Amino acid sequence: MKTHLLPAIKLTVLCLILFCIVYPAIIWGVAQAAGTNKGMGDFDNIGQTFTQDKYFWSRPSAVNYNAAGSAGSNKGPSNLDYLLVVQGRIDTFLVHNPGVKKSDIPSDLVTASGSGLDPHISPQAAKIQVARIAKIRNVEQLKVEQLIAQNTEKPMLGIFGIDRINVLKLNRELDKISK
After folding, report:
1. Could you tell me the pTM of the whole model?
2. Residue 133 contacts by C-beta under 8 Å, 6 or more apart in sequence?
3. pLDDT surpasses 50 at 39
4. Long-range contacts for 93-98 (Cβ within 8 Å, ≥24 apart)?
5. Mean pLDDT throughout 101-111?
């Protein structure tokens, strides 16, 4: 019995020290060194609502961008309530973007993501908003399109994911060129 019990106790103590003290300390140190605590008001990785016409609009959220309640709507494409919500978003978008056809609106501008907190839109969703933003800000459309190109994030390692744009970062850059 001593041949099995003593090594088991030693292993347990070793694991407690490694996984309850050493590993968390290393992770905490790396996080501090990386500067993950940027301060309040800097939420680049959480979707936010932008409703003013001078900004690029975000992807809709099923949870009103509440990070404490991350979730999708869980309503399928045949659910009448869901279809009415999406149609309302389409109608609102068309009112604010005259000249855009309903069939040209990318789905990420009228449907919420699975988490309800997605901070990204597709480059197509950004490009379809260029005319509205350029007109309101009195900026050349080409300049706004260049801003989109500069802020487009490529897939990780060139294969994992799709091209995407962080809306908050893009809107910050937009404010810089408009001043």
Report:
1. 0.71
2. 53, 54, 55, 56, 139, 144, 174
3. no
4. 93/57, 96/53, 96/132, 97/128, 97/129, 97/131, 97/132
5. 93
What are φ and ψ of residue 52, in 5° steps? -75, 140
CA distances from 116 to 4, 61, 72, 84, 87 (A): 51, 4, 6, 18, 18
Residue with tokens 């197509």: 124
- Residue 166, strand partner residues: 120
Q: What is the pLDDT of residue 40?
A: 41
- Torsion angle of the four alpha carbons 88, 72, 156, 107, in this order, in degrees rounded to the nearest 10: -20
Structure tokens at 146: 């260049």
Q: For the chain, what are the domain ranges?
A: 67-178
- Can you name the residues that pair with 120 across neighbouring β-strands? 166
